[in-house]
Design brief:
Structural class: mainly alpha
Distance between the termini: 32 Å
Largest sheet: none
Number of helices: 10
Shape: elongated
Radius of gyration: 26 Å
Number of strands: 0
Helix content: over 70%
Order of helices and strands: HHHHHHHHHH
């Protein structure tokens, strides 16, 4: 469970709803027609904007924003350095026995390509292509929530305009103007809440997750190519250290000791 997503969402919603409650009854902020216009309109427009397979994928992507864990970059560096040491002692073919024990499918594929004697340029081309395809897929999933964040305020404004038109059509009843204006503005509030308290934050979290995964894959490509080139394990380690946050670089040396 990603506590930053959960805690951030809870803080956002609890404080906003708490502020609404402190200003009066929460019932004053609930209006079913406004919800239908804002939520229904936004969902409908998103469905129109994307093919069915992208929409199905977006449902599973929400889960990754709450439960996905960060890649273990430190562990990856240690694993690759140990492979470099073994390959230097016993040759690249000795790594074949380690492939089946790897949990990371991308690293497993990378090592297998090297063990099979694939040309280094071809190895890099294959792995770079896979990174590019995965990055495009992440951007496509993120675009669903970007679109939702973009459209929700617009549908909130549409609902407000509908409410204002209905209110102006009944100006003879002065006592209804205040409540009518309040209801008209609720749809704008709903649109802003959907955009800024759900769709926007989810989109940004997905972007951060994608950046972490792509960085981890680039780390693996750099390390595997260095192993294939027969570079000294110490040089491999120094190359891969640049992918680690400064706080972890010192930890790497300590764990090796």
């Amino acid at each position: 469970m990603d506590l930053t997503t959960v805690v951030g969402m809870l803080i956002s919603w609890i404080l906003v709803i708490g502020g609404m409650a402190s200003g009066g009854s929460l019932g004053a902020y609930i209006d079913i027609p406004s919800l239908l216009i804002t939520i229904g309109g936004t969902v409908g427009a998103v469905i129109v904007s994307f093919p069915g397979d992208k929409l199905k994928a977006a449902g599973g992507v929400i889960k990754s924003a709450f439960v996905s864990k960060e890649p273990n970059l430190l562990g990856m560096v240690q694993t690759i350095v140990s492979f470099a040491e073994k390959a230097r002692r016993e040759g690249l073919l000795a790594l074949e026995s380690d492939v089946s024990e790897l949990d990371n499918e991308f690293m497993k594929k990378s090592i297998q390509l090297v063990v099979d004697g694939t040309d280094p340029e071809l190895v890099k081309a294959i792995l770079d292509t896979e990174i590019g395809v995965r990055e495009d897929r992440h951007l496509s999933n993120k675009a669903v929530f970007d679109t939702m964040a973009e459209l929700a305020p617009a549908y909130g404004m549409i609902g407000t305009l509908i409410g204002l038109i209905a209110m102006l059509g009944n100006l003879q009843d002065v006592s209804a103007l205040g409540p009518g204006m309040a209801v008209a503005l609720i749809t704008t509030m709903y649109g802003s809440m959907v955009a800024n308290m759900f769709a926007g934050p989810i989109s940004k979290k997905l972007a951060a997750r994608s950046a972490q995964q792509i960085a981890a894959m680039e780390l693996m490509v750099e390390g595997i190519l260095a192993i294939q080139a027969g570079e000294n394990p110490r040089i491999v380690e120094e190359k891969l250290k640049v992918f680690l946050p400064p706080r972890l670089r010192g930890t790497l040396g300590q764990k090796e000791e």
